[in-house]
Amino acid sequence: MPIATVNPATGETLKTFDELGPEELERRLALAETAFAQYRTTSFSHRAELLNRAADLLDQDQPDIARTMTTEMGKPIAAARAEAAKCAKAMRWYAERAEELLAPEQPSAADLKDSGASRASVRYRPLGPVLAVMPWNFPLWQVVRFAAPALMAGNVGLLKHASNVPQTALYLEDLFQRAGFPDGCFQTLLVGSGAVEGILRDRRVAAATLTGSERAGRSVAAVAGDEVKKTVLELGGSDPFVVMPSADVERAARTAVTARAQNNGQSCIAAKRFIVHAEVHDAFCERFTAGMRALSVGDPMRETTDVGPLASEQGRADLEALVDDALRLGAVAQCGARRPEKRPRGWYYEPTVLTGVSDSMRIHREEAFGPVAAVYRVAGLDEAVTVANDTPFGLSSNVWTRDDGEVERFVRDLEAGGVYFNGMTASHPALPFGGVKRSGYGRELSGHGIREFCNVTTVWHGPEPDDVNAPVE
Ligand code: NAP
381-423: per-residue pLDDT in tens? Predict the structure, then answer.
């Protein structure tokens, strides 16, 4: 894929970029290594000062960087501004909390009994340069939720961003530089996906994190496995949104619209499969369809737009193929299932609700990356759990119920990295984020996220010379 800004609202190529040559790539990898050697010794308070400055700069830049994101990948402008604000908030959260999250742990004297140690501790030390392979759908947030904890832990970052968001990628390098991070602490590598293997095999790169498709994740994990390098994978999702009879159906349907159509339907944690108890199925579908139909589809630069274009022509073609397959096999389109007539240019697709979805359809097993909802009718909790788990993915899940007994059953049985009750899945700095099954492994955000790229170091001290209880070797 060429590295270029192509406006999805018009299909127009606005700017193209040359890929880094081998010499420049080598220079940057060497710089990452030397930057890490020094940066790893800096204090938490110094790193926090730099990261807080980056957050302040990002707040100031918000209108401009929001326009850049919308131009490159088509998200509605208000959502782009909200994404930038969320990034600044996460930076401040890690700036304030990192030292506490990575504080040395001291096992108690009782726990150390028979260990031979007079004292011991666990320290969290940085690993080195970490390669971040990132997607275009939240072009700032996906990077910041890696970079903020990684930089606070003392690592340095090498960003290989998606090829369709080069200007956002370059902005990030510039942002961290202006904030005062030393040269080489955060670098953007303008390279295509073909260069990832070579970079990951380089001895100076310690680990990798990838957010993206299963295909890309598998490829990076295979190389990292061969090199025995740590990885975190945040891959696709097809999250269930279960509605039980005790639910507030009105609120569930309203939230379902946002949960499905956010980010033009291109979010890994968007609710994609709506599994609705027969008792409330029709009431839910009526409200949900009305809500999806009422969304304003159009120019993402307009403040009132709810749904902009899909990010690429290929992305729309893939989505159309999933919908066509479902319709051919008996699904019914309650709304949408077509391109908007008024938008001949750009890669628009109407918000779509498909009912009567069954396990013979591709959409049952594959991720619909666009504003298309698959609705199932189920007879009870057991069937709801079975349908919810009948997917290769396991990112997050949503359940609408006011029955405490059901809550425990869903927590116990849903195969997902999160279970959100009476609301929609959303990431937050204080909560771990990640999946199971084909949605990947490892966690981002919270204390779990910052420890992923740390060397968890055991520090052991032998017995004091006058310790009469010390074990004899
Ligand atoms: P993608 O095609 O996998 O691209 C993601 C990144 O991986 C890009 O930088 C891409 O570079 C690179 N890449 C692609 N193939 C590669 C390969 N074989 N080896 C190394 N790198 C490779 O995914 P996308 O279309 O940008 O994003 C959509 C997917 O990401 C969806 O499945 C979505 O659910 C998932 N996602 C997951 C999360 C999560 O947190 N779990 C969050 C957001 C998105 P190029 O652009 O140069 O090809």
Answer: 999 999 999 999 999 999 999 999 999 999 999 999 999 999 9
Instruction: Indicate the pLDDT class of residue 48, thresholds 50, 70 and 90.
Output: very high
Angle at 201 between CA 195 and CA 204, to 5 degrees: 105
Strand partners, 399: 242, 421
| Alpha carbon nearest to ligand 1 atom 43, residue | 268
Q: Which of 136, 268, 436 to mutate to test the pocket of ligand 1 (most atoms within 8 A of CB)?
A: 268
The per-residue pLDDT for range 161-215, each reduced to its tens digit, is 999 999 999 999 999 999 999 999 999 999 999 999 999 999 999 999 999 999 9
Say yes or no: CB of residue 236 within 6 Å of ligand 1.
yes
pTM, two decimal places: 0.97
Structural domains in the chain, sorted by start: 4-235+439-459 (3.40.605.10), 239-421 (3.40.309.10)
Reply yes or no on whether the pLDDT at 468 is more than 60: no
CA 213 to ligand 1 centroid distance, Å: 4
The preferred substitution site among 1, 199, 201, 213 for testing ligand 1, maximizing ligand atoms within 8 Å of CB, is: 213
CA of 39 relative to ligand 1 center, distance in Å:
29
* CA 321 / ligand 1 centre spacing (Å): 20
Answer yes or no: is the C-beta of 192 below 6 A from any ligand 1 atom.
Answer: yes
pLDDT classification of 471: cutoffs 50, 70, 90? low
Burial 69-82 (b: 16+ CB within 10 A, else e): bbbbbbbbbbbbbe
3-state secondary structure of 369: coil
> Nearest-CA neighbor of 140 among 157, 161, 156?
161
Number of neighbours of residue 116 by Cβ within 10 angstroms: 14
In this prediction, residue 465 carries a pLDDT of 77
Ligand 1 in reach of 429 Cβ (< 6 A)? no
List the catalytic residues. 234, 268
Find the largest Cα–Cα distance for the chain.
86
- 354 ligand 1 Cβ < 6 A: no
- Listed in sequence order, the residues at least 6 apart from 311 whose beta carbon sits closer than 8 Å to its beta carbon are 8, 73, 74, 136, 137, 164, 264, 266, 347
Alpha carbon nearest to ligand 1 atom 46, residue: 162
